[in-house]
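Dear H.,

Thanks for agreeing to be a second pair of eyes. The structure we're designing against is below in token form, covering all 412 positions.
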């Protein structure tokens, strides 16, 4: 028996070894996989008697060969970065099958020619589980000595619990850099768990196909990879409540905000509790108080909707993609909770550079963020690097003075 994933290079897990060998395609299928007792397989796997790329776990994969030649029958797996979350659902439980949760993680590799080691994204929350995308190149026995670009996805890899699992469909996409080009995609389905938390394609696409400018995947030595993830059938993990602001089915919604002409159904009391601006709008003598539909001016619909998802108990995370406009909206409507969430994210992320953080710290008076940024400067060259940026001109005299004092302390 042969499996479709063997022909697609799927049955593999990234073990970080570029020279690790794997069995030839179909080698592990000479015996019926059903003859393997599952408890015995689990025990042997923990003893490392099965290599990850020989796992008989059932997985399906479907390639789309729109923009690259067919990949030869080789085993494989993968990784990558940045993320946008779109959730649906409601309520809390220790497992759920009724709703799907979708998320996208994007990885930008700016120096593909110099890619020597694996690059990964930070962890991003999808369906209340941490996911990470990673990418590297591999030339090994399992790629028949051919250099391939490899992509993998990690799901909850740091958990030591065996009680969780989730079914997910993952589509990896190498994004075309030309308007007329087509993305190169490959898809698989896997049940992620303690024993299967890393999956992907070591032979995603030949490296020479990416670096070939005629293929349209590379521009200025930069490539973009995305992972589109659909999660369902989650076990052992609580589901976070998610609110549908675009539907009038929630009995707790008692107000309608019109943003760019589209309605958003909200709770006046909840917004007023977090924002003195909305409190005045809903409960003072303003003319909006008696309106059934209240227009919200000078905001973008998608950005305001994101603000609501961060503010409500769904607690959508702040990311490098949404932090800038969340700061602006939180300041505009005086929502301290969202402002605090943004500041906390910026203190801990490396996805936003220090000078940008200092500019925002100035703009929104974020003293803790300014403190963390200045403490991160350890060498004179660190301060000089800030001065060489365009954004340095936007810094206040107070922040420039603090940087000068830091430089003098370093030189002492």
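And this is the sequence the design step returned. I haven't edited it by hand at all.
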């Amino acid at each position: 028996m042969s499996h479709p994933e063997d022909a697609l290079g799927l049955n593999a897990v990234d073990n970080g070894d570029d020279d690790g060998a794997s069995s030839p395609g179909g080698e592990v299928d000479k015996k019926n996989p059903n003859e393997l007792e599952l408890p015995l397989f689990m025990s042997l796997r923990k003893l490392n008697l099965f290599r990850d790329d020989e796992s008989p776990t059932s997985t399906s994969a479907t390639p789309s060969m729109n923009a690259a030649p067919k990949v030869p029958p080789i085993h494989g797996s993968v990784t990558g970065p940045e993320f946008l979350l779109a959730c649906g659902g409601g309520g809390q439980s220790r497992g759920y099958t009724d709703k799907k949760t979708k998320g996208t993680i994007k990885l930008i590799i700016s120096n593909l020619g110099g890619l020597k080691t694996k690059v990964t994204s930070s962890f991003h929350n999808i369906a209340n589980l941490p996911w990470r995308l990673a990418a590297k190149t591999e030339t090994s026995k399992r790629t028949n000595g051919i250099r391939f670009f490899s992509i993998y996805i990690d799901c909850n890899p740091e958990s030591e619990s065996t009680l969780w699992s989730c079914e997910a469909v993952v589509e990896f996409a190498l994004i075309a850099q030309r308007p007329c080009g087509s993305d190169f995609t490959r898809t698989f389905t896997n049940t992620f768990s303690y024993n299967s938390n890393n999956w992907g394609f070591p032979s995603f696409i030949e490296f020479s196909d990416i670096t070939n400018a005629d293929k349209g995947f590379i521009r200025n030595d930069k490539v973009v990879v995305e992972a589109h993830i659909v999660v369902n059938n989650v076990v052992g993990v609580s589901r976070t409540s998610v609110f549908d602001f675009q539907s009038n089915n929630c009995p707790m919604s008692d107000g309608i905000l019109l943003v760019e002409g589209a309605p958003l159904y909200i709770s006046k009391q909840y917004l007023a509790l977090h924002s003195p601006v909305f409190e005045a709008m809903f409960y003072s003598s303003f003319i909006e108080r008696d309106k059934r539909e209240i227009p919200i001016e000078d905001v973008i619909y998608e950005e305001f909707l994101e603000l609501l998802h961060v503010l409500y108990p769904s607690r959508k995370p702040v990311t490098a993609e949404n932090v800038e406009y969340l700061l602006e909206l939180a300041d505009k409507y005086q929502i301290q909770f969202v402002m605090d969430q943004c500041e906390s994210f910026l203190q801990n992320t490396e996805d936003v550079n220090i000078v940008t953080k200092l500019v925002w710290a100035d703009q929104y008076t974020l003293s803790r963020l300014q403190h963390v940024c200045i403490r991160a400067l350890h060498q004179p060259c660190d301060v000089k690097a800030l001065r060489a940026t365009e954004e340095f001109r936007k810094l206040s005299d107070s922040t420039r003075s603090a940087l000068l004092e830091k430089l003098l302390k370093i030189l002492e």
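Two observations from my side: Residues 81 and 121 are 4 Å apart (CA to CA). The first strand starts at residue 60 and ends at 64.

Warmly,
E.
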